[in-house]
């Protein structure tokens, strides 16, 4: 008998009801049943995003939505600022460059806060308003850093640059009031906090963004949001959508709203707190300071002489616990716990227990139970 615990930053575990819902018969995606489904999903997702703007469901992974954000709202030759402090921030800049956009990177070291001052200076210096967009990843899954969107929105102020935000690993898990923060384009994917299988991406657009879109000249076909809008008006998507995923999404969103937005946010906060407390109690160093800590992913710096691949394979083979390693330049330097989607406090206790025992098996000095104790205390504190 073997039980698996998926504690990576996505895909995340899904509730059994969502898995069951995926086992659906097919329907006509140009028929009335699909129209109702699409309208209901769009309305519920607008509540998750806290937006009254436009919102589209794409059959794509999160990267597809990043590409959609660029090709629909920015043109080749235009200048944008890409804020980056991790692998996904770099990906956003690379996608823009692939489409001939002039990218000014404001880069910080991975695991360090964004350079908000440099953004402010760049926007102030842009007197003739040539910067047409700012891209940023809200929750940098590669480092477990949550960037300060409210501050970025404040710094952008009344500069006309569109604020384009990747919330792939945070939307749903933390409060992101898209309209209130003036986020022009916001995107996420199904396989993270929304407790759904991979395959769907979601993108919202403000009226400001929509107006800018009319003047863009970028190449696009599959990701044309103009087409998505035309079809949404008749209750359809331009191309065949991932129907099973959309049926599952209806169940997932029903469960999401049963728990309530605040309930979901608080569950994620508590899990993050427990993992951080446990890491500290085990004498491990966290990559990111508490004030910037992600509520969905925690990166722990590997102690000297510990091999991350060995740790992960011990946790997997001996205890059925899957955690993530580092990405890119942080691979073999950190390991990451994902605590998002259909994960609960007790999953963290299991994950931490597996971590302690695996460290002990690998000869790393730990006091068994000290991480679990700290996590339990953090959870009891609320
Ligand atoms: N952005 C962030 C913050 C992510 O965490 C991920 C995936 O982990 C992506 C973008 C890319 O999403 P996908 O792998 O679904 O294309």
Structure description:
By secondary structure, the chain is α/β, with parallel strands linked by helices. The chain has two domains: 24-257, 3-Layer(aba) Sandwich (Aspartate Aminotransferase, domain 2); 260-381, Aspartate Aminotransferase, domain 1. Helices cover 42% and strands 16% of the residues. It contains 13 helices and 15 strands. The chain has helices spanning 16-22, 32-49, 62-73, 87-98, 116-125, 149-156, 207-214, 225-232, 243-259, 261-281, 308-319, 345-361, 370-381; strands at residues 5-6, 54-59, 79-84, 102-107, 131-137, 139-140, 145-146, 162-166, 185-189, 200-205, 285-286, 297-301, 321-322, 324-325, 334-338. The strands form four sheets. It has a seven-stranded mixed beta sheet, with helices on both faces. The longest helix is centred in the C-terminal third of the chain and has 21 residues, at 261-281. The chain starts with a strand and ends with a helix. The mean pLDDT is 98. The structure holds pyridoxal-5'-phosphate.
């Amino acid at each position: 008998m073997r039980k698996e615990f998926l504690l990576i930053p996505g895909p995340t575990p899904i509730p059994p009801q969502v898995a069951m819902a995926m086992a659906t018969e097919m329907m006509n995606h140009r028929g009335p049943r699909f129209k109702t489904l699409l309208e209901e999903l769009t309305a519920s997702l607008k509540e998750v995003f806290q937006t009254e703007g436009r919102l589209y469901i794409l059959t794509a992974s999160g990267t597809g939505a990043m590409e959609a954000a660029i090709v629909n709202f920015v043109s080749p030759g235009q200048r944008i600022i890409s804020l980056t402090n991790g692998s996904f921030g770099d990906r956003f800049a690379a996608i823009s460059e692939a489409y001939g956009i002039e990218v000014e990177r404001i880069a910080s070291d991975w695991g360090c806060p964004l350079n908000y001052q440099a953004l402010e200076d760049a926007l102030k210096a842009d007197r003739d308003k040539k910067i047409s967009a700012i891209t940023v990843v809200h929750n940098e899954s590669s480092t477990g850093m949550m960037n300060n969107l409210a501050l970025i929105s404040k710094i952008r102020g009344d500069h006309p640059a569109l604020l384009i935000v990747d919330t792939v690993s945070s939307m749903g898990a933390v409060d992101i009031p898209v309209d209130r923060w003036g986020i022009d384009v916001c995107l996420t994917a199904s396989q993270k906090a929304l407790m759904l299988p991979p395959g769907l991406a979601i993108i919202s657009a403000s009226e400001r963004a929509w107006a800018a879109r009319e003047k863009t000249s970028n190449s696009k076909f599959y990701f044309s949001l103009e087409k998505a809008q035309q079809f949404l008006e008749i209750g359809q998507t331009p191309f065949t959508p991932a129907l099973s995923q959309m049926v599952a999404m209806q169940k997932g969103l029903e469960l999401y709203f049963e728990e309530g937005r605040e309930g979901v946010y608080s569950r994620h906060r508590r899990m993050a707190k427990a993992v951080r407390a446990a890491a500290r109690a085990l004498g491990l160093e966290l990559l990111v300071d508490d004030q910037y800590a992600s509520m969905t992913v925690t990166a722990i710096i590997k102690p000297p002489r510990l091999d991350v691949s060995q740790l992960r394979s011990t946790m997997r083979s001996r205890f059925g616990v899957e955690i993530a390693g580092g990405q890119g330049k942080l691979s073999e330097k950190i390991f990451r716990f994902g605590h998002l989607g259909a994960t609960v406090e007790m999953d963290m206790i299991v994950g931490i227990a597996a971590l302690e025992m695996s460290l002990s098996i690998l000869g790393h000095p730990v006091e068994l139970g000290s991480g679990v104790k700290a996590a339990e205390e953090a959870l009891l504190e609320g």
